[in-house]
Design a protein that fits this description.
heterodimer, A: alpha/beta, Peroxisomal Thiolase, Chain A, domain 1, 2 domains, ten-stranded mixed sheet, 14 strands, B: Non-ribosomal Peptide Synthetase Peptidyl Carrier Protein, Chain A, about 60% helix
């Protein structure tokens, strides 16, 4: 029988703070991490973002000083989150040989690359500086994490837009279930940069105010940044080393829309297939689900398609099933979003606390029968939760997570 | 340009150009630039060639010249002065 997959370590660097404790506290308090964009000048429509403020400069783990000095923001985020996840999982250096590394990201060190390009164009530099291009390849985050923490297992990098690190979690779980590795570290990381900010703004996909998922007046998403990491492990392996599982990964599914380069399929057929597929694989009937951590970007299209999918899967019971979007607090962290939201969902299960959808002041009348956890979180016993992530190009990932029996 | 001022400029370029976490004044005049002290690697070497060539208008065409120029801060100052004199 395939081993059960459990989550024994968590790490996070988000706009709500530099670790999981800060994330949990911020989610519980309903804090909104979205504020003014300060990282670079932008002259478009929007000017807000969820920036990581407390960027720790200490580079953890063992890296040569020259490598550590040159790390891009998202590589630092990834390393901090990964180190926290390994620490909280109680992984010592002796276990590194067994750990696979699965990373999702979309733009890597693009901000540094953009600055090099700007300096060249402005004739501030006459030649490109190699050091400013080293963080450009998307595989650097996984390489840095592996080198700094001494992880020698298989190493894979996924880039499927906004579902990248949900896919990383799914593929990490898959590797553990298939027995490829007893331990897998899933990481999502991304940093704000001009490419994505200007790109989403040009698509008129950014709200000019902090995003308002499910609100009648929602005007788009807010971009965010950060990293999150989860240590996944075969249940028996965790038991042998007395690690405390925070949650179980019960099932996952990945589908494609084959429809459009940016828009979701209007019927949500792919999203529905991912959700139904993940529940089927988890052997969880829809009526057993207690919480949905929605993709919930705050764009008119996404939220409408997503709620439509949920209505079809959960029927009238959806009225009693809490659905919230933590993007209202953390922004849309793109390649990091799936992992960040998986961590938020594990915290919800483990602590019995529903994270709210903040900035939701005027519920869309089409959904006035639903529980979208507006403004304030609340305590609720949760056994099973779903986190879904949908990427541009029509790439859909659903994860089904379960609380551990106590 | 006088040697002391040039020495200070070279140290400041090292710190700002390579984003080192030391003060310029803490860099020794005679210690090897690529020794243990500053923790520089081969990518820093490539960077430093570009930085020094652009700032001081000198040419470091090959490894042999590079080794001589980057022996120490004092060696680099000497190299720049000599190049300019020629």
């Amino acid at each position: 029988m395939a081993p059960a997959v459990v989550i024994t370590g968590l790490g996070a660097v988000t706009a709500l703070g530099g670790d999981v404790r800060a994330l949990a506290a911020g989610l519980a308090q309903g804090r909104c991490g979205i504020g003014r964009l300060t990282l670079f000048a932008h002259t478009g429509r929007s000017g807000v973002a969820a920036e990581v403020r407390e960027e720790a400069n200490a580079v953890v783990g063992r890296l040569p000083p020259a490598t550590a000095r040159r790390l891009s923001r998202p590589d630092r985020f990834a390393l901090l989150a990964a180190a926290e996840a390994c620490r909280t999982a109680g992984l010592g250096p002796d276990l590194g040989r067994d750990v696979g590394v699965y990373v999702g990201t979309t733009t890597g060190g693009m901000l540094v690359t953009e600055e090099a390009y700007r300096r060249r164009r402005a004739a501030e530099d006459h030649r490109f500086r190699l050091s400013r291009l080293l963080g450009t390849p998307l595989a650097t985050a996984a390489a840095v994490v592996s080198q700094a923490l001494g992880l020698y297992g298989p190493r894979e990098t996924f880039s499927t837009a906004c579902s990248s690190s949900a896919l990383a979690v799914a593929m990490a779980a898959d590797a553990v279930r298939r027995g490829v590795v007893p331990l897998a570290l899933a990481v999502g990381t991304d940093g704000l940069c001009r490419l994505t900010y200007a790109g989403f703004d040009a698509l008129q996909a950014l709200d000019t105010e902090p995003c308002r998922p499910f609100d009648r007046d929602r005007r788009g998403l807010s971009l965010g940044e950060g990293a999150a990491a989860l240590v996944l492990e075969a249940d028996a392996h965790a038991r042998v080393r007395s690690a405390r599982p925070r949650a179980a990964v019960l099932g996952w599914a990945v589908t494609g829309d084959a429809h459009h380069v940016t828009a979701p399929h209007p019927d949500g057929a792919g999203a529905l297939a991912a959700l139904a597929g993940a529940l089927a694989e988890a052997r969880v009937p829809p009526e057993a689900v207690d919480y949905i951590n929605a993709h919930g970007t705050g764009t008119r299209q996404n939220d409408a398609v997503e709620i439509g999918v949920l209505r079809r899967v959960f029927g009238r019971r959806l009225a009693r099933l809490p659905v919230s979007s933590t993007k209202s607090q953390l922004g849309h962290c793109l390649g990091a979003a799936g992992a960040v939201e998986a961590v938020a969902t594990v915290l919800a299960l483990d602590e019995g606390l529903l994270p709210p959808t903040v900035n939701l002041r005027h519920l869309d009348p089409a959904w006035d029968d639903l529980d979208l956890v507006p403004e304030a979180g609340r305590r609720a016993p949760l056994a099973v939760a779903v986190s879904s992530s949908y990427g541009f190009g029509g790439h859909n990932v659903s994860l089904v997570l379960g609380r551990m029996a106590r | 340009m006088d040697r002391d001022r040039l020495r200070t400029e070279v140290k400041e370029l090292l710190v700002s150009g390579l984003r080192l976490d030391v003060r310029p004044a803490d860099i020794a005049d005679d210690a090897a630039i690529f020794g243990e002290g500053l923790g520089l690697d081969s990518i820093d070497a490539l960077e430093l060639v570009v930085l020094v060539e652009e700032r001081f208008r000198v040419s470091i065409p090959d490894e042999e010249v590079g080794k001589r120029a980057f022996g120490s801060v004092n060696a680099l100052v000497g190299f720049i002065l000599q190049e300019r004199a020629e």
